[in-house]
Amino acid sequence: MAGIRGKRRRRAHRSDRAALSKTKNLTRGSLRTSTSVSRENRARTAPGPALRKPVKLGRRYKLPRHDEDGILGWLLPQMESSYTRLAAKGAPAPAGAPKITASALTSTAGVILHTAQPTVWRDALLEYKRRKAAALARPAAIRPAPAAPAIAGARNWVPLGPSVVLQGQTVGDQPVAGRVARLAVVPGGSILYAASANGGVFRSSDGGTTWASLMDGFDLDPTSFASSSVICGAIAIDPVDPNRVYVGTGEGDTLQLFRLRVVAALPAYRGVGMIRSDDGGSSWTAEASNPDLAGEACFALAVDPGNRENAIVGTTAGLYRREGTQWKQLMPGVFSSVVVASGSGVTRFYCAQWGQGGTGSRILYSDDGGRSWQAAGGGFAANDAGRIALGVQPTSTALTYALIAKQSNGTLHGLYRLDDVSGAWKSVTGVPLVLPVNGGQSQGSYDLAIAVDPLDGNLVYLGGSYVEPAPYPASIWRCAIRASGGAYAVSQSASIGTHAHADVHSLTHTPGDPDELWCTCDGGVFLNRAPRQGGEFASQNNGLSCLCSNFLGQHPTDPNILFSGLQDNGTARTATGPIWTHVMGGDGGYCVVNWANPGEVLVYANGVVYRSSDGGSTPDGWSAVWDFGWATMTQPVVTPRYNPASPSDADLVAVGAGPDVYLSKDFAASWPSKFTLPGGAASGDAFALAFASTTRLFVGTTSGQVFRADLLANGWNVKQLDNAPGGILGVSGLISDVAVDWADANGASVYVCFGGMGDARRVWHFDGTRWEDRSGTAGAGHLLDVEHNALAVDPLSAGSIYVGTDIGVWFSADGGQNWGPLENGLPDAPVFDLQIHPSQRLLRAALHGRGVYEIPLP
Length: 858
Hints:
The chain is mainly beta.
């Protein structure tokens, strides 16, 4: 089976994009396939002797062309951290446990995965809803605010954006949003619904000029499971009544990555099934499925234009049809495309099955509302056919196009045309390079899209990954088709995706309008108002606040100035509100503002630390770049706690890179010292760092070990803590964060939290001698068995701890003895980072799919 890899690309700085010939560049990722290439490159990029010494790069120096791994690079580490097996310390791996053979979390050994039940994510969400309802009756001592969305007069989470990121990573510096899977367009083009991959559904009532989130109000009834996952893969509407909306949760586009790299394990952030709205997204109803679609993902939805109660969805678990209010499986397998056309009194559904495990890919049709299916056409080129995207004209039941990627390597298999279901498929020659090839591989399993002109069946639009040269815009092609002998050929083609973001997931016309072509991609939504005449795509992302925020950086005294590292959209900054500006490229990670001199800022992306001397306000202010090698996707970059009485402390910086930790005393101008974690491969890679003082640093690793490094006269002395003789750390797995317990004046105590799955003991406390589980008491006060990503300890309130998880932010007022959700107005998107503002009583959260939120602290 094919894998997924990243294409080496460079992302030009804004000041250099006009010429594209200057040498100041940043990386950004694409995809390519091949298991062997993946493992070879993972070994190449894994920390080794050649990467142990950081490399200094001058401002005009061409930055290292890391293989960024694209979707693999940022999604695989998240996925592994979610499903890495947690177990009691020293417990043997179960027989037959699924294992990643080339892990992104450790450079030296495979990772055992937890075997999760398909309903695990939905079950956890349901328990979360129950806990939120129960929290309403709890004493105020352990619940700082009622658990409900945005309650008038109460302390509520407030969105800080990005509602959009200006000057984004595109040609022409178009505003960008986060990844959008699919789009539903109402006739006329004024009303649209965008299904974002990680942030729920958004609606526009003004043709994409502005957007509003539709899924942040799910908690109005915290005991109703209508508040399902905000991970979306498919969407469709009733063309007569645009208030009837169907959504398939779970993102199908990442199937190939999940199925190859995580063997027999539930992937991170899959869906919880099907949901429906009858009022334009103001409220939602969950609809049952049989077999259950919890833990699966959706590719495409099609609604019968003559009967809105009849709909078909293609999923990772089969082809499903809506019967009553339940979705029933028609056929098992993976179905990557579903379309519908109606004309001359016939409504015809088409579907494409993506062959898996020796089962070939095929195309089927139904003329009886989806009750029965048969092969569409003869002579289908099934050899090495992988993922298929189908294109039809809504009013023509006969004409069908199939854009097919190869199963073996994700490159283009071909474009094929069927003029009648009783006829034969014919190949189309001369197709442009929709899926560029790198090392014999491409990414047709991740982004593959096609649209047919609604008035001209000989005009098609094809979407793929990217086109050369830098900064690598979207691969969108207009192709005129003509008969050629017994087949067809592209008589003329043109690349029209120049100003759109790369990695195209769908192409959609406004119904009946050949002059409005919409694109969804890793940068949001884009619109071309003249695709026939060579028009360019323009951003339609204002208010589409679905960016995947990874980490935060804060100005020490001005709470308005914030930085956030974003997936495939670089690093963004704001000083004035919800509209942020792109200031650095690549896949953004940690952001650090020098709290004694806020004009100095550090950010991390793709193995490199960048330094700004102008407050990080412009792309051209970054200099003194250091390359540490790329061991984990977002390697930690930290400084000591805010202490205005000792401004020199702010210049101390630590960076974790594999088993090594580098330290700088001049805010990354140089790195004179480092230490290596003892224990070799068993130690894992540094994944979390926390300074207790300028001479004490705590480290948590990918293999569940904790270390304390103390600066002595002869250098850093490193001691392992997880095996403390007074009481060991009782769980083994990924340590996702470390936070100092400021109630201990000696700086010897810390909290740690775990990613992974399989053990609900998620938060632990070390008092300098022994470890103790601080995941709450059994029952209502305990944390859930989901990934816990971030910790924040309030230095002004002893025992007050906050933890960010895949499902919500949780609070304990008693050092972890009891926990409750802290969720007023916070969307149900995974929380990746938590930070308390150093001089204001504000807790900030970075949400993977919904940007940044804050709540005032008591």
